[in-house]
Amino acid sequence: MTAYHWRYMAARYAGMLLCILLAHAAAAQMTVVRGRVTDAATGGPLAYVSISFADGAGGTHTDDNGYYELSTDRPYMELRFSYVGYQTVIRDIAPGKHQEINVLLKAGDRELDEVVVRPKRIRYRNKGNPAVELIRQVIAHKPENRTTAADYIEYRQYEKMRFSLSNTSERLRRDLLLRRYKFLTDNLDTVTLKGKALLPWYMQEAVSDVYYRRSPEKKKTVVIADKRVDFGEYVDKKGLNAYLRHMYQDIDLYTDNIRVVTNEFLSPIAGAAPTFYRFYITDTVQHEDERWVEVSFFPRNKADFMFQGRIYITLDGRYALARADIRLNRNINLNWVRDLTIVQDFTKGEDGRYYLGKSTLQADFTVLKSGGGPGMFGERTVSFSDYVVNRPRPDSLYKGLDIVTAPGAAERQDTFWAAHRPDTLTELEAETYVKIDSLKNMKSFRRTLDLMTMAIVGYKKASPYVEIGPVNTFYSFNPVEGFRLRAGGRTTTHFSKRIYFETYAAYGFKDERWKYYLGATYSFTGRSIYEFPVQSLRVNYQKDTKIPGQELQFVQEDNFLLSFKRGVNDKWLYNDVWNIEYLHEFRNHFSYKVTLKNWRQEPAGGLIYTRTESGLPVQVRNLTTSEASLELRWAPKEEFYQGKLYRTRIRNKYPVLTLRTTAGIKDVLHSGYNYQRVMLNIYKHMFASQFGYSDVVLEGGCFFGQAPYPLLAIHRANQTYAMQLMSFNMMNFLEFVSDHYASLYVDHCFNGFFFNKIPLFRKLKFREVVNGKVLYGGLRPENDPARHPGLLQFPLDKEGVPYTYTLASGPYIEGSVGVSNILNFFRVDVVKRFTYLHHPHVSDIGVRASFRFDF
Questions:
Q1: Is residue 794 packed enough to be buried (19+ CB in 10 Å), middle (13-18) or exposed (0-12)?
Q2: Which of the residues 364, 509, 627, 777 has the least number of beta carbons within 10 Å of its own beta carbon?
């Protein structure tokens, strides 16, 4: 539960937190029909019977035991029951009432393209199943039916994304937090979501021209118009859009795995779909002059990450998708999502192929998934038109970034939007832009966002120009400083967009020393120093304590939650560090960083620097070095959520590569050593479809030259009780030192693949996780203090037993198994250390916990 976790959690879900801040729920006047469908001859339940209102609206299926439930707020008076091999039944219903209707279906043969479907009830299997044979034809024809089958293709794309608070009208209007914003609740959407009223809070539209080339493959999107709600300085428009697009990605049913709300789901026409889904031919549809087959599908295991619903397949020999109406299975282990539906319509082109014409993704989020309480409703609708196939374009069109924005895209007038929208905005949608603009100018709303910023980032505004924080570092403790108090602050973009200052002061009541930090950053772009792409120069000085080998990039070591540590933890440093850093990021997400550093480290607590002279130990007061380093980083297609003064990466499927080279320079500012150091880090977030996902990190480094052990690689250990991906959780601080090493970290979440088979775990929505870490390393003779007494000797504990070692006896290995998603937030791991168990003060097994907000 580090500061980074809090920042990552709330930055990713800032929009959701803003929603949940606002409302609560009750019931509306609804027509609710429930009941059971059985075979008239045998009395047995009929599973997967199609049920809809008489005009085809609504729609559901019976479950494995023949039960169903359907609701609407519209005055429908008839309900239709249809099932292949049985006679269709239409029953009257009473609008606005709760009622139970049980139906008996009678058998009746149906013929479809020379395939006779009989009512005989048999155990489901793929062999001899006409629905499965039809799906196999769809799978076989996927390469030719995909949009990307053409050498070139281009089209116009209109996208509309909207988000709303979901509750009932009465509760939204009565909510204490909304009373002062009555103008927001004057008109609510009571049509889109059954039984709920929607209060719009975000709206975005975009018109783009899309160009695709198959070889070499490249997709270029030119945004010619862009319009979105602006919350002002507290919410990053680009970052919010990036995260919402990350959750609501483009849906391509022709791919095997489909990303939805940060998870992967198996497509119903994936190559492996017949293994994981059950398919039934449930209807035929006459569409203009064409016949389509309706195929209903359901997951074999109701708890697996898969869809259910209906797809419509053409009978023209192409076996293409003509329409899809699918939703998530409600039994899956997915947090916060109450309901999610995807509707896609395909249109027939001049060449006879079917192209995606419209795609709508709707998701209803809630804190209490099983209840009818407050939540958030999101919808992304994308319309496609003006398809042009196999018109070659010059190579210059495809060069550069995948997505570019045309000049003036954000300044398009209303006349442009009226001409380019496929459908006219509703009155509520049009008012969203105006109402949120009024809301952001209200002082009470800005105060609310200011408090949220403090909870998310840890900083509280003291004036328009200065913020104080981080609040989680105001108090901490450690064996060297004892009780520690700290106060600090930073300037805001109101002070200057080009120049940024940050400072803090801290005092330890045990060592009676002051610590402090002074830093200044200049932005060459004229924008915030965190706004991508950055080009900045940073100068800072820090006088503070540090644990040897710990490089905590996202949190402060004086974070209160990191004060609690296991075992012996008394070997620290007093650091005096000067840094000059130039950072240059490019729009293709390549960046380089040049750093000049002068570092004087003084041992503190139980750590003592000694070397041998004339056979006698001599204590060394401090160690000084000057370094120059170059870091190259490449993160293709990287996206961020960023606030005014912070940035949070949105993980995607692409790797992140970081190469860092460092040179120690002797005799510069009292530096005592010449050396070179190289490090390569590769991070990859990997999806394994139904088996979950993994975070994989491969890192290696090599040191050239001769230097004392504090300048070598002191491997990242973790003596806190928090589970950390990039640290060895059962390793002690300062336990291992290397001048060449390679490490592999793998953290895998099965997303409940096994637990979902256990009823209790499925109900609790637990997820199983495993973690493994391996570290190889060594120390060359020239850097071994046992062979060179003039080097600093490895430290000893109070009993004179060695505290620091090399990896000469093989790799360090640890692993863990755990349960995540406990109460939707927590993860607990049992961690096992497998090697170097003979070292003093180590444990071979322990329990670690972490906190994460995820779907």
A1: middle
A2: 509
